[in-house]
Amino acid sequence: MKAFREYSEKYPFRQRSETPDIAIELSLQPWREFGVDGVIMFSDILTPLPSIGVDFTMVESKGPKIISPLRDDYAISQLKPIHDVEKQVPFLGTILKSLRKETEGKTSLIGFIGAPWTLAGYSVEGGSSKLCKHIKTMCYENPSLAHKLLQTYTDSLCVYASYQIESGAQILQIFESWAHHMSEEMFLTFAKPYVSQIASYLKSKHPNVPVVYFANGGSAYLSSQLDLPVDALSLDWQISMKSARQITGYDKVLAGNVDPTVLYGSASTIESAVKRCIEEAGIHNHVLNLGHGVEKDITEDNVRILVNAAQSYKHN
Predict the structure, then answer these.
(1) Where does the pLDDT of residue 9 fall: very low under 50, low under 70, confident under 90, or very high at 90 and above?
(2) Rounded distance, CA 135 to CA 124, Å?
(3) Which residues contact 49 (CB under 8 A, 6 or more apart)?
(4) Residues 56 and 49 sit within 8 Å (Cβ to Cβ)
């Protein structure tokens, strides 16, 4: 969005996401412009890390850079847990409470966190990585240290996610952004147990708030996600909805999963992709969404076509 990009040109990312007035405005812009059925808080999965002791900066066109990567037991032992979000992440409550007031009775407010393995990956690698050699080597060669880091993050993320709900979030999504770096075996050992802890914690404290898990690139081991204690699974674009339903059945709530690059196509291409996804998902238990984010050079008109196609679709 042009209006969205104008903020990017004026302010660095962390200033945008940690300044309530700016974060609130950026959260609301897509809803106002396109009439989507939810508002997701403008933030980042790494936002809680500085409060834990892992500082980062955003490098233009390269993404996050961890100032001091966690590579040994000493560094991990120095991490401090999040126990008082209001004091340790002081801008978060203001953003969510204001968004809830703005959206009350009009749409749903979505909060989110990064999953422990993904955050550990960033923290150990030092930023984006093609191979994830440091975190994966830690998992293979020093699994006890990897588990120590993952448990430390899990404990803090339970508190951080719960606070989002207490501050107004009506849905909580857990992003496993680096699921594509994991084999199924690694997922089962180093990711799934910690996601399960967070989801169980949230469901025990907030039983009526849906918890969603999105494993980007994790559709290769979708069957291993079925028994996670979450309310819905969000799918990446790499699996067809038809194939996903053969794995999950039709009782499981699924979100997704139109290929985002469809938005580079014509109106008829976009509308056909939406129609196919909805029809393959079935008449119930599906939230139409993209299988990943919108690229910067996608036109606003094409986003609008997708939204309108989804909202105007009627099952026979």
Answers:
(1) confident
(2) 6
(3) 55, 56, 66, 119, 122, 123
(4) yes
Q: Provide the pLDDT for residue 177.
A: 97
Contacts of 119 by beta carbon, 8 Å cutoff, 6+ apart: 45, 46, 49, 153, 157
Q: 303 to each of 8, 30, 155, 238, 313, how far by Cα in Å?
A: 20, 10, 37, 20, 16
Residue 301: pLDDT band (50, 70, 90) is very high
The Cα–Cα gap between 213 and 252 comes to: 12
Neighbours of 144 (CB within 10 A): 8
Phi, psi (rounded to 5 degrees) for 311: -75, -20
Characterize the bridge pairing of strands 56-59 and 63-66.
antiparallel
- pLDDT tens for 211-225 read 999 999 999 999 999
For 81, the token pair is 């847990």
SS (H, E, C) 11-32: CCHHHHHHCHHHHHHHHHHHHH
Section 35-58 average pLDDT: 97
**pLDDT tens sequence across 68-87:** 999 999 999 999 999 999 99
Quick: pLDDT tens for 219-248. Answer: 999 999 999 999 999 999 999 999 999 999
Burial bucket for residue 266 (CB in 10 Å: 0-12, 13-18, 19+): exposed
